[in-house]
Amino acid sequence: MELFNGGNIALTDVPLLTAQEFRAEVIRRCRLDARLINFFGSPEDRQDVRLFAILGEDEGGGLQILSTKILSEYPSYESLTKDLLQANLFEREIAEQWAIMPVGHPWLKPLRYHANYRGVPDLWPDIKQRTIPGSYPFYFVGGEEVHEVGVGPVHAGIIEPGHFRFQCHGEEILHLEIQLGYQHRGIEPLMCGKDLKRSVLLSESIAGDTSLGHSIAFCEVIESLSGCLIPSRAQAVRAVGLELERLANHVGDLGAMGMDAGFLPTSSYFGRMRGDYLNLLLSLVGNRFGKGLCRPGGVLFDIDAAMSNEFCRKLKEYKKEFDSVSDLLFSQSSVLARFEDIGSISMKDAKMLGLVGPAGRASQLETDVRINYSSGMWQFHHVPISLGVTGDVYSRALVKRQEVLRSLEFLLKILPSLPSGEIFTPVTSMAKDTLAISLVEGWRGEIAHVGITDAQGNLSRYKIKDPSFHNWPALSLAMRNQEISDFPLCNKSFNLSYCGHDL
Amino acid sequence: MLKIIKTLFQQGCRTLPFPKGNAPSFPARYRGCPIIARDPESLDIGKITFIPDSDVRYSNDYRMAAAKREHLIITKNEKVLAAALNREMLRIFGRSLKLRQVSAGGCNSCELDLNVLNTPVFALGRFGIQFVASPRHADGIVVTGPISRNMREALLKTYEAMPGPKIVIAVGSCAISGGIFLGSPEVSGGLETIIPVDLFIPGCPPHPLTILDGLLRLLGKIKS
Prior knowledge:
The complex is a heterodimer of chains A (about 500) and B (about 220). With about 500 residues, chain A is α+β, with helices and mostly antiparallel strands.
C-alpha cells in the first residue's frame, strides 16, 4: 500500500499478510530497491501484536506499508535478520518490547533492558534486575595475545553513557560490540494517551541535539492524523530551525574530529562557531536547542523582517569564517593523514546495514529525506545532495563540510522571502484507528515517527526511530582491523545519539 | 604554519569578560528565571522545563543556581541563590576544582552545554575548574538526566569511587526532579533521592552562563 511522507492510512487499509508472506515480501522488496525505514509492533486485543514494516524506495520516493499479526498463543515468527541485516536491531527491539521471539535470529539480545509492554513473561526472565554490561556474555575472541578492552558506561569526556567492548590483538581491533540502553527513559509509552501537551515536550527531549528534528516529526504525525494543514510560513520557520540545528551540529562535529586528530586550533574555532548557530536559535526560540518552537499546528515564534535581515547578515559573516576555518582543517596534511582510510564503510556494506544521513551519503548512498521524500519547504527549495565516495572518516568530514555550505545557501535563499501569513492553525481531533508517518532529515539522518490512534482517536502506539538506530552497527563494522587509537576519531565521525537510540 | 597563524589573528580572543565585566546580553525571547507576580504564588524552577507558556512570564535573569532544593521554589519576594562553600571546603577546592560528569538518562542537551564551558568563550580552565576523565581524580560529580534505572548503579559506583570530601552538582530539570520524564517507571524522581546534592542548576537545559554562574557562586567567586 502506497503512502507518502506526512500521509496517513486507516488501519483496515494496511495490507495484512500471514507471517510467512510478510517475511518473504519485506525481504523481496529490500533486495529490489527498498530499505527498511521502520519495523515495529503495536498492541491489539487479546494481547496480540500487529507488526508493521515501512519500506522506502529512495529513488522513486515511495513508501510502502505491510503488516502481519502475531497471535498471543504463538508469540514467535521466523526472523528476517538472517536474510536481511537491516532488520537486526528492529527485531531485537520487538523481542524486548513485546516478548515475541524472532526464531533463528543470529545474535538475539536485549537492546534497552526493560520489561515488555504486553504484560507477559519476558523473553529474558530476569531482565529488570540485570545491570547491563556485567551479566551479558559479550562476543569473545580467544587466543594468545588477544585481549579485551571494556569502556563505559561512564566515559572520559562529557558524553552520554554506553558500553564498548573491544576484542583486540595488540593494537588491532578484531571486533567491537556496543551495548547501549543506559539512557532508556521509556519515552514511547509516555507519548501515548490524551495529553499531547506533554508528548510534544517529550519529543523535544528524545535527543536534545535533535530537538527540532524530532519535534517537527512529532508535530507532522499529529497534523496528519487530525487533517490539519499548517500555514506555509510555519513550514518555513520550521525549516529555518531544522537547518540551524544541522549547521550547529555539523560545525561542532568538524571541530571535534579535528580535536581527535590532534589538531586543536580548528576545534576551538569550530567549537565557538557552533555556539553562533545555537545563539541564532536562542534569538528565534529563546532556547539554544530550539525547544519550544514547534507545536502541532505550526510554530510559536515568528521571524519578522528585522530578524530575517539580522540572520542573513550574520549567516553571511559565519559563512566567511566557516570557509576560512574549514580550509585550515582540510589543508593540514597531519589531519588528512588521520582522516583518510580510517573507518571505511563500503557502499555495499552501507546498503546492507541500511545506513542513513551523512554516514550513508559518505558511502555514496543517495538517501536524504529532503530530496527523496521532500515535504514542507523542501518541495519548493531543493537542497543538492552531498555525496562522498570513500566511506572513511575523511568522506564523512567532507560530506558534513559540504552540507554546512548547502544549508547556509538554503537559509540565505529562504530567509529573505518567507511566505506571508499566519504561523499557527489549531489542530482538531484526530482520526480514529489510523496510522500516520512522518520522515524528517535530521542532522544525523532520517528520523521516522509513526503514530497510531485507537477507536477513540487517542494515540495508542507511538514509534520513534532516530537515525542512530540504523547507524550504530556501522561504527562496529568501521572499527574492524583498525587500531584502537582510531576509535575516538571514528566515533566522532559518526557522532551517534545514545538517547535517540535508547528512547 | 602561516595559515594557522593567520587564522589565529583572524579569530582573535573571544573569551567573555564575565564575571569581572558584564554578562553578555540575552535576546528578548530568552526564557530565564520566571517572574512571580502575586504574593501567595510560587513556582518550582527545579521542575519546570522553561517552555513558552501563556501562564508563566519569564525574565532574562540567567542566575538560578541554588544550594538547597527548597530554594528553587521561588516566590514574589524571595530567590535565594547559592552561597559559597564553607571555609574548609573553599580552602580545599577554591582554587582547583576537578569535576567528573555523569550523564544518567539525559537528552544530551545539558551535556552539550556543559561542554560549551570548555570553549574559548567561557574558558572554564581560567577559574581552576576542570572536567577530568576519572572519578578517582575528581573532587565532585556533575550529574545530568533523570537517573535512568539502567544508570543508577554506574552513577553510585562513580560517586563511591571519588575520594572525600566531595561535592555533587545536579544540572538541569531532569537531574533535579526527573523533569519531563517524572512518572516514567524507568527514571528516578531526582538526584537528591539517591545521593546528597550541594548545588542545583535549573534549566532545560540551563544556559552555559547559568551553569558557570552557579559554579562560581559555589566557589565564592561571585557573591550575591
